[in-house]
């Protein structure tokens, strides 16, 4: 349990990923209907894929190159202003990147920093490796809980024996609200807690629905 008696839910995200964004908005709904508290951490699709760039389409390689900037800015904000700014900054960034369709451009990053009261100079870290060691450590912590063959997001919660249960996803659109959010949370925990359970999947028939 966390200090306030709520169950901690660790959530690893890359701010550039639209599917992680959908899951994160669902997770905020879960906070309203279940006694949980989200703790936000960064992971990086660029780091995840850096050893297999030659196998990826050029278009996706370009997206991964652009993905370095926002995640570096979030890590810099965390390192210089504390863990409590991560979730707020993620919401400000994601709203601009995804809901408003601006993408991970510098103007969106600067506006997001300004919205949450952080120095806009943090945007300069997008092109610097100052905190890449911390970025990679956070990424490693999340991805090692689930394995290398998944993406973002990764979620980890305490299991019945005190050990963390971790999983990739769920991938869902639009983000469920209210009782639907609760049902998905309860069901996800139920299947994820079964030893030896690995995967449920079906073909996506639509892209992320931002609302």
TrEMBL record:
CDD domains attached to this UniProt entry: DsbA_family
Gene3D superfamilies with a match to the protein in the record: Glutaredoxin (3.40.30.10)
Source species, domain of life: Bacteria
One Pfam family per UniProt: Rv2466c-like
Protein name stated in the entry: DsbA family protein
Biological source species: Streptomyces xantholiticus
Upper lineage: Bacteria, Bacillati, Actinomycetota, Actinomycetes, Kitasatosporales
